[in-house]
């Protein structure tokens, strides 16, 4: 089964959007990096982005049946979405949370994450490299059941 890598709102603008915070790497570049790293790990991946909360919920519900684990950067919904949290809890899958920026260095409203309540752990502050770190993490979670 594949790992679902799900990306939330405005991440389609990576590379153009606040590059001083999020870097010059585009989401397409991150998709390519993840695919290459996933091949090395022998882990199939499905990489998606949506600006819509409900679509992210639908994909998490789909992952419940179809995936071995979820890597999620819920972007702004991290800080607001009980619906995404509930979908992740219902999935019963290993979840790794990713953020490009170090959310704890930023605005106070970014310090709280609903996603964290459902995640095994969080990787933040390492930019695009956080996604490959998250793949390593989910790979060991899938292959070393707790
Ligand atoms: C983000 C951090 C969020 O606070 C923000 O709303 C984003 C991106 C990150 O990857 O650093 O859109 O999730």
Automatic annotation (TrEMBL):
GO molecular function, one term: 3-dehydroquinate dehydratase activity
Pathway assignment: Metabolic intermediate biosynthesis; chorismate biosynthesis; chorismate from D-erythrose 4-phosphate and phosphoenolpyruvate: step 3/7
Domain of life: Bacteria
Protein name per UniProt: 3-dehydroquinate dehydratase
Source organism per UniProt: Thalassospira alkalitolerans
PANTHER family per record: CATABOLIC 3-DEHYDROQUINASE
Keyword line: Amino-acid biosynthesis, Aromatic amino acid biosynthesis, Lyase
Site feature location: Transition state stabilizer: 17
Annotated GO biological process: amino acid biosynthetic process; aromatic amino acid family biosynthetic process; chorismate biosynthetic process; quinate catabolic process
Family: Belongs to the type-II 3-dehydroquinase family.
